[in-house]
Amino acid sequence: MTLIIKLIAGIVLGSLLGLFAPDWIVQLLLTFKELFGELLFFVIPLLILFFITSGIAGLPRNSGRLLGRTLGIAYASTIIAGIIAFFAAALIVPMLASESREVTQAMSNGLSPFITLNIPPVFNVMTALALAFIFGLGIAATQAKTLHELSDQGRDIIKALLVKIIIPLLPIYIAGVFAEMAAAGTVFTTLKTFGVILVLAIALHWLYIVGMFVIAGLKAGKSPVTLIRNMLPAYFTALGTMSSAATIPVTLQSVKNNGVNEDVANFTVPLCATTHLAGSTITIVSCTVAVMVLHNALVIPSFMTMLPFILMLGVVMLAAPGVPGGAVMSAVGLLGSMLGFGETAVALMIALYMAQDSFGTACNVTGDGAISVLVDEAKKNA
């Protein structure tokens, strides 16, 4: 929650500086934004490579049927959540923010940073994804201990970089983005769209939760209301921790209170904490549409154009870093490679996502409870 407060403070401070501060102060912020953005785009392919490789290589073994069932339901849940979010956002956001598409054009006529620096990534995002699957599946098949250790160590290095440098500095980065928009006169239009999309995302989270537990309740012959009520401690814990992993003890107890077999709960809850991010996917897809509405250079795609992005996003979410903002950091590469997002669009995405990260995490965790019920029922009937 401290991170959210800092992020909001960055938005407010950046907007005020852009409106009232001398140009040189705004340019200092823009310089930081420029340099930080280069570091961020350099790190993203490495994040995808190491986290997905480590995630695939580290999946539990000797439990193939249960593992396949759990991952299958988690992936299907994530994809359906993303599709619903796309249709809802594509329908609602353009109607409420029809004048927003001037944002990018106005920003392009604003101030420039004092210094620019080009740090090209080692490889692009799709190369990172291909390498991650090749090495992840190869390590799992050959039990290559050295490569497994290397992928885990690479993951730990990138995670440390995220936790100690990138995420703590995000509020300053966002302040630079909003200072630029305020100087260009477009900040209030952007903030209005922010409010719309945040309310929409949270509403979709609860629609998703209710839908998942209605399905789980019908499958298990239990009341969806009772199932959801038993998961509320996990929901509110996740609101505070902003971490599915940190909420695992509470999620486990909530799932067991729903009558799920202890062995199934002990398997599905820790696995889903890192592989099931339907709430985060809802937010990312909703925010993607909102940024496209704000961004004059981007066009909201058709469903058939957006579907490949959602399918790939579901794959990337299976191994997103378990830290605040980890899901959107994993998605940044896909946004650039598949949807044409540039630095400004990515910065808006990060700001939008981080503002509601705790709600997305709470949705992820609560949805894990529904998956546990479904897997338990499938195991009973197997």
Protein traits:
Proton glutamate symport protein, 382 residues, single chain
Task: Walk me through the structure.
- With 382 residues, this protein is mainly alpha-helical.
- The chain has a single domain (2-381), classed as Proton glutamate symport protein (Orthogonal Bundle).
- 81% of the residues lie in helices and 0% in strands.
- The protein contains 15 helices and no strands.
- It is globular, with a radius of gyration of 21 Å.
Write the layout of secondary structure elements.
Elements: H1 2-20, H2 23-57, H3 64-96, H4 103-108, H5 125-142, H6 145-184, H7 187-220, H8 224-241, H9 248-257, H10 262-275, H11 278-294, H12 303-317, H13 326-339, H14 343-355, H15 357-381
Helix pairs in contact: 1-6, 2-5, 2-6, 2-13, 3-7, 3-10, 3-11, 3-12, 3-15, 6-14, 7-8, 7-11, 7-15, 8-9, 8-15, 9-10, 9-15, 10-15, 11-12, 11-13, 11-14, 11-15, 12-13, 13-14
Biggest pleated sheet? none
What is the percentage of strand-forming residues?
Answer: under 5%
Dominant shape: globular
Give the N-terminus to C-terminus distance in angstroms. Answer: 42 Å
Which fold name corresponds to the CATH topology?
Proton glutamate symport protein
